[in-house]
Amino acid sequence: MATLKELAARGDKFTGGHRACAGCGATIAARQALLAAGKHKVVAGCATGCLEVVSTIFPYTAWNVPFIHSAFENAAATVSGVEAAYQSLKRQGRITENIKFIAFGGDGGTYDIGIQSLSGAMERGHDMLYICYNNQAYMNTGIQRSSATPRGCNTTTSPAGRKIPGKAQFRKDLTEIMAAHNIPYVAQCVIGNWSDFTRKVEKALDKGGAAFINILQPCRLGWGYKPELTAELGRLAVETCFWPLYEVEDGVYKLNATPKDKKPITDWLFQQERFRHLKQPANGAIVDEIQREVDQRWERLVRKCDG
Amino acid sequence: MSADIRLLQGNEACAEGAIYAGCDFFGGYPITPSTEVAEEMARLLPRHGGKFIQMEDEIAGIATMLGAGAAGAKAMTATSGPGFSLMMELLGYGCMAEIPAVIVNVQRAGPSTGLPTKGAQADMMQARWGTHGDHPAIALCPSSVAESFSLTVKSFNLAERFRMPVQLMLDEFIGHLREKVTIPAPGELEVYTHPRPSVAPGEYRHFGDGTSVGGAYAAMGTGYRFNITGLTHDPMGFPTGRTDEIRWKMDRLRAKTDDHLPELVDVEREFLDDAEVVLFAYGGGARTAQEAVRLARARGIKAGLLRPRIVWPFPDQTVADALAKAKAMLVVELNQGQLIGEVRRVNQGGTKVVPVLRYDGEIITPDELMTAVEANR
Questions:
Q1: What total of structural domains would you count in chain A?
Q2: How far B231 CA sits from the closest chain A CA (Å)?
Q3: Would you list the DSSP string of B318-373?
Q4: What residue in B sits closest to A145 (Cα-Cα)?
Q5: pTM for this entry
Q6: Which CATH code is given to the segment(s) B268-375?
Q7: What residues make up the domain containing A165?
């Protein structure tokens, strides 16, 4: 893996000066991913969403690499076309460089409307890394629930009030769905552990073939916390085992971090405004359910990694 | 009881209107600039015993709405440009399967992602011909927040009566405009719900009541047997390849609007009696046209406004009558010229038809319209 010194010397391919909120995790993910990919020539694609909107407001762009935005539901399909054309042109000798392809999409554009396009690209095995910057709701349109939104979460379309206590369902496990595609590389990452993310982006690109990384990305606005806590909330998600860091390489599961003292999920939940209503005693049962679900998913994952 | 007066934006008024009309179900997907409709429905529906579901995309949004409509709910979805495009296949399915439902499109500037936060009226032809195949279309355009409420109620009524998806074509200007609205008291506006069949289940034919409009039809699971499909079908709903049955079905669909044009004309006329210069405008663009007509009258110009609230089916006769009396008709649109084609189609005489268009994401100004009025007085 590239050292911190090497990374610092590379120069940003996703630059500052964009219009993201203070403390935005999505732009941290994009910057770190392109830094990690720094030894390669890279083409980036992006689904509609916060990352695309804040980074490409005319006449400025934060992308120091060729960049294509298509629509909301088809970043993976669009990059499939770009990559397939590249392979063809390369075979014909019309391109000689080695180029890597990275597609970015938020959880709405990946878990929900874009899952068909993503699944197709992974199944066909395009030489592409898809990175989902997962902030667990539709933040660009003003915080609506997605299938990545955790149970109990208050969003504008799962409003916590007298009738419902926030979102009724647990989050979809997209990382496992992607692992079930039996592609060369699948990994889970988090904002707040840069070295883990850098290593995984490097590995995904070096292995070649279809790869998927799901990076949990705290969102100051949608989650409701002070902007300086972005990295800390990411790490807490790992320490509570809500968001384990693991990878699936050629079908082999590996845990990348096992918390010494597994923290209660409330340590993570109660730092965020979106779960504030769960502090009410009447909602205690929901917190217990969430804890049980975290425990069960964690134990299942540990078994897979031990096996 | 004192009047229920509120300050609402068009999108919120649309959701309030849906609740007034008895909407039970909303299935949709967030997209700017329509998202407030979904957010309000998420808030309001559970209080009224209804169901809000956020789906995984707009294709699923319209599909779940039509499923709920087939099951007997008053169902709705809301979207904008890119989502509206994704819904097109199932809009045709809704026509073919004759399912009542309301699709709200808060129009933004396109094509593609276009200008998500800026308004336009550039989906008007898509509302008519966006889905493939011959099909009827009913579409309404509110010009105020109060109309966003009342025309939503009307959209549900028309959907129930004509047994098909009705399109409420808002635009971002009205969707995000805030105005004072007096919420009508219960019973003040008509709320129509289609009759359920009274025949014995054995005699029931889902598409066989002789007319497709105003008849009784059953919801799924109420003891009546029928088949629902997007395939061209016979009166029981079963797929057919017989030319006589195909023609019967296609004529039945066409008759929904073609045979009921008088009740599908809803046009606001202002100062038309002696108007020499007529402004044809609808939706958000009509607000500027209203002001321009007042300014023109103050300057002694005989100007008037023709403002269809129901845009599809197009009010041919009303427009033809106005054209016959006018020297010029200025067609005001926030697109590159869509309904002007319809105006030209019905223009039988030598009346001058002049486009006054704006398509840069901003609303047209009264000054721009006055320049055109002065040039054509």
A1: 1
A2: 25
A3: HHHHHHHH-SEEEEEESSSSSTHHHHHHH--SS-EEEEEE--SSSPPPHHHHHHHH
A4: B54
A5: 0.93
A6: 3.40.50.920
A7: 4-306
